[in-house]
């Protein structure tokens, strides 16, 4: 860790470089966070917030300041988080002391938000609220997990590909699929009968269209009884 500070007429500036590791499942993520914390005598130091995104899906985490403890002048030095899967840019922010910060999650169209970790681990909804205490360093490390949507359902089990659902199916299984298009070459090669009901809504509660396979479907063994299933 390196730290440099300079006093200039009541203004204290910090540049802090921080390496940290987050072991997520079988993946070791090593991130480098650099932020500048600037404050006046009136509002105190800034604090840093770092965000790590993990999981099998994809999404974004953004911050929005809802309260600022700024007397004079206002708080122009805050740097908000705008972090997306696959990019390190925008995954760290810095906030003046007293700033109340909310982190919002936005999964992509094929993902769901699966929960928080780190300093937001006690939060149960897709929004996490933090308060900057002006520690002049990295105060919070937040982990946001996005997983692939369960596109297919069989009994109480969920799957992300048709092939996975077929491979796990027992004789007489009923597989439900959502209204979407999937790039797969699917093979049924088990001497069983499977019923496939496609075109379901994301919550599997209603029929809204069809499940489309952008690829091929080969039945080398067994029987498939399908409705609302298209090969394109």
Describe this protein's structure.
- The structure is a single chain.
- By secondary structure, the chain is mainly beta.
- The chain folds into two domains: 2-148, no CATH class; 152-231, no CATH class.
- The protein is 3% helix and 60% strand.
- The chain has one helix and 19 strands.
- Strands 13-12-14-16-18 form a five-stranded mixed β-sheet, with helices on one face. Strands 7-4-11-9 form a four-stranded mixed β-sheet, with no helix packed on it. A four-stranded antiparallel β-sheet has the order 6-5-8-10, with no helix packed on it.
- The longest helix is centred in the C-terminal third of the chain and has 7 residues, at 162-168.
- Mean pLDDT is 81; it is low at 1-43.
Assembly form of the protein: single chain
| SSE order | EEEEEEEEEEEEEHEEEEEE
Cα gyration radius (Å): 24 Å
- Fraction in helix: under 10%
Total individual domains: 2
| Percent range for β-strand residues | over 45%
Distance between the termini: 55 Å
Q: How many separate helices?
A: 1
- The outline comes out as elongated
Model regions low in confidence, pLDDT < 50 over at least 5 residues: 1-43
Number of strands: 19
Strand order of the largest sheet: 13-12-14-16-18
The SS-based structural class is: mainly beta
Biggest beta sheet summary? 5 strands, mixed
Which whole number gives the mean pLDDT?
A: 81
